[in-house]
Amino acid sequence: MAQFKKETKNLEVIVKSLIAGGVAGVCAKTAVAPLDRMKILLQAQHEHYKHLNVFSGLMEIVWREGFCALYKGNFVQIIRAVPYAAIQFTAFEQYKKHLGLLREGSHIDGFLAGAAAGATAATITYPLDTIRARLAFQVTSNTLYAGIIHATVKMFKEEGGFRAFYKGFWPNMLGMIPSAGFTFYTFEKLKYLCMKYAPHYLCSKHKTNTGGGFMLTIPAKLLCGGAAGAVAHIFSYPLDVTKRRMQLAMMNPATHKYAMGMWFTIKMIYVEDGITKGLYRGMSINFLRAVPFMAVGFATFELMKQTLDLDTGMKV
């Protein structure tokens, strides 16, 4: 009987974590959807937008395609964001719990938990990321896909079955490991430091079923999440560009060469455009996007944990 209650409690925690992660994913992705679309257009050097910067590009989208075009592809992104964020946040909590992570001084364990959580979520939801990128890359005057279902069927029939949905998967995974690892580690470390050294300025009291403790205030959550996003994306950005080129390679005959493999694509990007305008193209918008994205995502997840009594706080 005691074992059954324990298993039921664990299942309840997992379900609540999935809900909290899903809500966090929707809020974070919706908050940065226009920047997400602009980043894809810049990374893949769309003919109508490659000569523009971030802000002029956003205005050009509104002028050329209308305001709603800023959110093109966001529906499929939300469909992906819910399971992705739910799995990523829940996996991290579970890895952290079962491996006895985040003890003071446990640097490598915290990093590995975040990396494993990111890799787990990315593997499961990657096809939706590819479809979303295809839809976001289209402009109103030149469309290949009428929607999610049409894109799925067309890619499956014309590009080799399920393999079509996993183009760019390996650079994504190689970039995900340091990115997710540093993201979760940085957030948890900053959260710990705030609670330990400045609880009266950055924390507030929170009562739960199991007692009370200090919780980060909403501004502190946003600050820690934003800092985590800024740190993590520096390392993985060239691989993110490579992934996008491979995902979008079959949309234009001139870019079919990027479907030949990860290392070939990296080499071609470097030869044709160099480092600044090639491998790090769109990096400025990535920073503009990553900071609020991570800030909103982590802050929402932490708030949902408090609401669902998943976080008992830290005693000080």
Automatic annotation (TrEMBL):
Family stated for the protein in its record: Belongs to the mitochondrial carrier (TC 2.A.29) family.
Subcellular location: Mitochondrion inner membrane
Name this protein carries in UniProt: Graves disease carrier protein-like protein
GO CC list: mitochondrial inner membrane
The organism of origin for this protein: Ooceraea biroi (Clonal raider ant)
Ranges occupied by Solcar repeats: 12-98, 105-193, 216-307
PANTHER family named in the record: SOLUTE CARRIER FAMILY 25 (PTHR24089)
UniProt cross-references to Pfam families, sorted A to Z: Mito_carr (PF00153)
Keywords associated with the record: Membrane, Mitochondrion, Mitochondrion inner membrane, Repeat, Transmembrane, Transport
Recorded topology in the membrane: Multi-pass membrane protein
Superkingdom: Eukaryota
PROSITE patterns: SOLCAR
GO biological process: transmembrane transport
